[in-house]
């Protein structure tokens, strides 16, 4: 996995007579969701239709793809009655704010992408996430709570590249396999960032990849920080 969710091509092509072909397409964002978007077997595709808010979703929606729109804010009410969601993709919007508790009822949610938005802090994340992508935002370390990831015991793929983090997030779960932190502003790490300084026998058996290139840190100065890893992080060593 590279942090990018790939969805089906949802464009609808309608053929008409010659006079109709010269009429420019219009986008009426006041249409009911399943006329404005494509609804198919529990999946809702609302990609590249210039919506500015999360549309009302049909009951039993499991997968929502709302990439490349103009959504600026996610409210608690957007998902208050849709507890069946398993995957949400908001990549390529203009999201600046996510209300506290916006995802709190999504107890089945496994994949969440907020990549390519304008977030400066992370919301509280649902407990069963396996994949979280927040690449290419404006997130600083103070925008991530100390225990933001600690209880996410299923989280395997965490993508936080191309942000403004000064430090590696704390309390990363044991389940983590892939961690992307490339192109941030990370200047230091400690012996407890990935490992346990009080336990020299501790090994992170599941961690396969850590990317830290593009940060202003010389990793060779922190070799003890990687003693529990099976492979060294990708980054600058000299």
Q: Can you walk through the features of this model?
A:
With 238 residues, the chain is mainly beta. 3% of the residues lie in helices and 13% in strands. The chain contains two helices and eleven strands; from the N terminus they run ααβββββββββββ. Strands 1-2-3-5-7-8-9-10-11 form a nine-stranded mixed sheet. The protein has a two-stranded parallel sheet with strand order 4-6. The radius of gyration is 20 Å and the shape is elongated. Residues 1-28 have low confidence and may be disordered.
Structural features:
238 residues; mainly beta; nine-stranded mixed sheet; two-stranded parallel sheet; growth factor activity; Mimecan; signal; glycoprotein; secreted
Query: What spatial order of strands do you see in the largest sheet?
Result: 1-2-3-5-7-8-9-10-11
The arrangement of helices and strands along the chain is: HHEEEEEEEEEEE
Helix/strand-derived category reads mainly beta
| Quantity of strands, as a count | 11
Uncertain segments: 1-28
